[in-house]
Amino acid sequence: MSEHRFRSLAETRWRIAVSLTALMVAIYFGFILLIAYDKPLMGRLLTRGLSVGVLLGALVIVLSWVLTWVYVRWANTHYDAGLEQLRRGEDAR
Amino acid sequence: MTILQATQAPPGAAVTTRIGEPNAVAMVFFFAFIAVTLGITYWAARRTRTTEDFYAAARSITPGQNGFALAGDYMSAASFLGIAGLVSTTGFDGLIYSTGWLVGWPVVLFLIAEPLRNLGKYTFADVVAARLRQTPVRVAAALGTLATVSLYLIAQMVGAGGLIRLMFGLSYETAIVIVGAAMLAYVLFGGMIATTWVQIVKAGLLLGGAALLALMVLARFGMNPLALFAAAADRYGAGVLAPGKLVAAPLDAISLGMALMFGTAGLPHILMRFYTVPDARAARTSVFYATGLIGVFYLMTFVLGFGAMVLVGPETIKAIDKGGNMAAPLLAEVLGGTPFLGFIAAVAFATILAVVAGLTLSGAAALSHDLWVNVVRHGEADSREQLRVARFATVALGVVAVLLGILFKGQNVAYMVSLAFAIAASGNFPALVLSIFWRRCTTEGIVSSMVLGTLSTLVLIWLSPTIQVDILKHTGAWFPLKNPALVTIPLSFAVGVLVSLATRDAAAAERFAAVERRMHVGEA
Question: How does pLDDT run across A11-53, given as a tens digit for each residue?
Fold first, then answer.
């Protein structure tokens, strides 16, 4: 029983970790590929002083924060609670 | 005499700056920093008795403290001086570095931080070797660690020498010896406790100094960053807000991006910090804080860079130093006169000193914990012997760092750092990921991945245009990319997988379940 719970917790943790990593890779390399292959778009001005490129650059930094926040949020509540249950289950045996 | 000195302002240049003259305020701040950090070292030395104190600060660092210390270890002078300089002279292109240097942190958080804390003791090799054969894995991991640490050390030492010569008027060699001596004192006597607190003080100074500078810039533009960017575009053309020459070759940009993103997760001195906190949850929280602090810092480099472009001017910055490295100090001088220049100079110096200390400690851990204790003595060394060897390794590395710094005088600092990232990303990161996630991996597979990842990176760097064309003055280079990560990261993964599939490691597969459980749940 405990083994089954452990498996599902471990699998959930890696599914979330790998999805978030893939998302981060997509965001950053999306930015780099736009720089590499669509320079006119990155240079277009949205308003005085703000080009698409500068905005997206700042957005990459902000999205890095958001993704780490999402993971820490999930891990501190769900993952840690699951681990705590597993540890207590082991003590009882 | 040297490339760096040759870039100093010619006497006729229309620049009035006191950079290059002994600066009393810089001296005062600098000696205050040395005094405070040596005080910390004295305090830490009395608490450093066991190997766990020396390598892992008795695992007593809080997540908030470790967040600052991680930021301190990571934000080197290359980011502060280098990025500000790059943005001020090229505009948008410099921002590619600001973002690239942050995006590795979420990867560290998602994949590495918690398993590392639960599986290891002092070095990242502890994790890779958790279910594989000790001797070959430790030797290969030490190779990757020492290659990364040496390149990174060279970059910091060369940066320190040039910086101090420009700011205090000391000779390059004297500056390097001062850095080496102060760093040795921290690490040798205070171990990880002193190193951690030096990082925290430095991170506070660097973030505070950069924030003050950024606020003073923004105050001139009605506290509106867009007004600042618009002023830059008005004066130097809208091109400064768009990608330019730096990314002329798309594959070069992608390769550099890969090195920056995955290299962070393979830097030995960063990984070692996760052992200083009490548990995996604290490791996780400390990355969250570090990502926040480092992100704020890189956002501020947008303002500092464009601020220096508008208020100082790219011509003036390049006249003082061709690489643009003096943009931030020059900006400080324009905004706050010689005293503020002195303060920023001292902050930049403290930055280098702290990073060098962290690097040396992680190199010493690879030499003593991985090579001496686990390979030579097969884990049979008592705490006293381990400490003695660790301190001996620290002194040896300190001497090597000073010698390398003098030998490599005049090399491009940012480039050397990006190469250290390439080795960390190709030699260390794939082995860590494969050994943590993949049941089927074998000792042979992981060792070939680490050795080939490190060696192929070194060879391709040698064959790259930077070495062949820029330094050796050949007409062409055999390998087209400046940074080899685009080739070497996939190569290292492929070799690890193929060799694992071709070999059998029954013990490794058998131990997987137990190791996997410990990775999540921690020690019982």
Answer: 999 999 999 999 999 999 999 888 888 888 888 999 888 999 9
Q: What is the pLDDT of residue B13?
A: 41
Q: Cβ separation of A64 and B105 shorter than 8 Å? A: yes
Backbone φ, ψ for residue B199 (5° rounding): -60, -40
Q: Model-level pTM?
A: 0.90
Helix H or strand E segment including A46: strand A45-47
Q: In terms of CA atoms, which chain B residue is nearest residue A51?
A: B241
CA distance A26 to chain B (A): 11
Residues in chain A: 93
C-beta of residue A49 within 8 angstroms of C-beta of residue B230: yes
Residues B352 and B159 sit within 8 Å (Cβ to Cβ): yes
B168-201 confidence digits (pLDDT tens)? 778 888 888 988 998 899 998 988 999 999 999 9
What's the gap between Cα B390 and its chain centre? 22
Name the CA radius of gyration of chain A, rounded: 20
| Chain A, window 29-68: residues with a beta carbon less than 8 angstroms from a chain B beta carbon | 29, 31-33, 35-37, 39, 42-43, 45, 47-51, 53-54, 57-58, 60-62, 64-65, 67-68
This complex has an ipTM of: 0.92
